[in-house]
Structures are given as C-alpha cells and as structure tokens.
Specification:
This protein is an all-beta fold. It has a 4-stranded antiparallel β-sheet, with no helix packed on it. Strands 2-3-4-5 form a 4-stranded antiparallel β-sheet, with no helix packed on it. It starts with 19 loop residues before the first strand and ends in a 5-residue tail after the last strand.
Length: 333
C-alpha cells in the first residue's frame, strides 16, 4: 500500500491494438468526448457540433443530434448518458442540453454560468442533472432533467481565502447519490489555485474542501474529476501534470501521480475500482490504485486524449483523440 503523499511508481507496461475502430465522419478533427451507455454496447460521441450514437460492435451509427449553439460556444465539450439510457446530457461552455436518444429531440436546456468547459452528471434515477451554474460559474446546480428547472444550488469553497471568488468547472454526483463533488479554481492575480469541494446531498453542507497544487506553473487548472465505483474516493486531474486521489471519509489526499510531465485531460476508474486510466498526452496509462504500479499503456493515438470512458462490463475502454475513436481491452490480469 502506498503511504500518504507517496507518488505512483512506473513499471513495465505494454501496448495493444484497438479491438474496434469506429469510422466516424469527422472533417474537423474536433471529436472531443465519448461515453459508454450502461449496456456497454453503445457509445455517444461528441463530434464538433454533432452528437453521434453508435452500436460499437456492429460498427454502426444509430443516430445523431445537432448541438444548439449558444453565444459562447458552438461545439460539445462533454457527454453523459443517463443510467436508464433514454437521454444524453451534452454540456459545453455556457449551456447544458438534454437529448432524447430515441427521437434525437432536445428535451430541455439551461444556461451554465462559467466561461470554461463544462461537464454534466446524472442522478441514479435519471431524473436530475448536475452542472456548474450561477454567475460566472460560482455555484453548483441540480436541475430537473426533463424540464430544466433549477431544484437546488450549492456553493462554498475551502476557507483559505474568503476574499476570492470560486469558479467551478467539473461536477459529479457520487454513484450512491450521497455526495456531490466539484472542482474549480480561484484567481489570485498572478496565480490560479485549484480546489476540490464535496457536499452532503441530504444536508446540503460542505463536508470537505481543500486547495491543492501539482507541479509547477502559474496557471493551474483542474481538468476532470471522477468518483470511484464505491463512492469512497475521488480522483482529480490537473493541467500541470498530476492526478490526485482523495479519500472522502478520511478527508485526505492518499495518492498522487505526476506521470511523465504532460497534462492530464481525462481519467476513468475501472468498474471494480482497482485501476485508474488517464490520458497522459497521447498515451493512455492504467495504474493499480493499491500498488501504484503501471500495468498497461495504450499507444494507439497520435494526439492528446480528448475523451476516455471505461465500460461497466466487458472491460472495454473507449477513447477519442483528434476525431479518431478506438475501443480496446487492457490486459490487467
């Protein structure tokens, strides 16, 4: 077991060819997000301003949905499939949009306040969606997915410097629906400082909040966060070459991985919670969370990883980079 504060180590790793390559029509090279449905057969792909739904193993596109442009953006930046597979939440700078998969129709939409790339997270009953909100992303909001109505709002940050205004970027509901996590940053003028906040859904109170920094650089931004399947830990990725793993109940940082020096834009937990996959520039590295050793690396992309998702069954990873979609299986045993 790694000790507190110890960095993950690297061991011999192996590469492997993709099991499936999807021939998406991407003229711009702007495919930016990919996510599995719970059936581990279908994926949704954000291809610039088009949302595509694919049957992976039939290599067949089943439908598409057109992004509704906003004053701030004209393309998708993240996707989230509802647990019942009926809807897809598509988020971007300034907007969250809910589409019905069967018809391709826009079900609801609402504005999000931040000027940075946003993501969305579903509740387990497929009725609610969490996004950043408020003026300039200063709150985390829960909306009714079917109507877009604002149901609850959360705010607050680590009490390190109350004079600064927080900007939330990434949000996520825990799989057990007990906690809400969000990361963001404070602008201190000559330097930005990432932070992580976690609230109890039942009480609405913040149960954990901390600033953190990884590596060097004046502009440090959180890139992604993801809960472990058992809701006990949360991993955060940073643009300054780092992944942190936090124990929620212990309220402490338990693992840090700094990689090879490149930024980490995407990460995903394995369904059993034993491994984390992260995009290290154009290489996807898979780490054992208990031992800290690298077990596998995938070298099938030429450009940095823009989307990464691990299927619930079958041990498949879907990844997208510069419009190239790969479906592959890491060998972890």
């Amino acid at each position: 077991m790694l000790r507190y504060g110890e960095q993950w180590k690297t061991s011999t790793s192996f590469s492997q060819n993709a099991v499936v390559t999807l021939p998406i029509d991407d003229q711009t090279g702007a495919g930016k997000a990919i996510t599995w449905a719970n059936d581990s057969r279908h994926v949704a792909i954000a291809n610039y301003d088009i949302l595509q739904v694919w049957d992976v193993f039939a290599r067949k596109q089943l439908g598409s949905m057109k992004f509704q442009p906003t004053s701030q953006a004209r393309e998708y930046t993240s996707l989230a499939w509802s647990p019942d597979q009926r809807f897809i939440a598509a988020a971007t700078v300034g907007s969250a949009q809910i589409f019905e998969v069967a018809t391709g129709k826009l079900q609801s939409s609402w504005g999000v306040g931040a000027s940075f790339s946003q993501n969305a997270s579903w509740s387990s009953d497929s009725q609610r969606v969490v996004t950043a909100g408020g003026e300039n992303g200063t709150a985390v909001e829960i909306h009714d997915a079917m109507t877009g109505k604002l149901l609850r709002s959360f705010g607050g940050k680590p009490a390190l410097n109350a004079s600064q205004t927080e900007t939330y970027i990434n949000v996520s509901l825990s799989p057990d629906n007990l906690y809400l996590a969000a990361d963001g940053f404070d602008d201190f003028g000559d330097k930005s400082q990432p932070f992580l906040s976690i609230w109890s859904i039942s009480s609405g109170k913040q149960i954990f909040g901390t600033y953190y920094a990884i590596g060097e650089g004046e502009i440090q931004l959180p890139m992604m966060l993801a809960w472990s399947p058992d809701s006990s830990r949360i991993a955060t990725a940073s643009n300054t070459a780092g992944v942190n793993v936090w124990d929620v109940l212990m309220e402490r940082l338990v693992l840090t991985y700094v990689g090879t020096g490149g930024p980490f834009y995407r990460l995903a937990w394995s369904p059993d919670g034993k491994y984390i996959a992260c995009g290290d520039d154009n290489v996807i590295r898979i780490w054992d969370v208990k031992t800290g050793l690298e077990h596998f690396s995938y070298l099938g992309h030429a450009n940095f990883i823009q989307g990464l998702s691990w299927s619930r069954v079958g041990n498949y990873i879907a990844s997208i980079s510069n419009g190239n979609v790969r479906i592959w299986q890491p060998q972890l045993d």
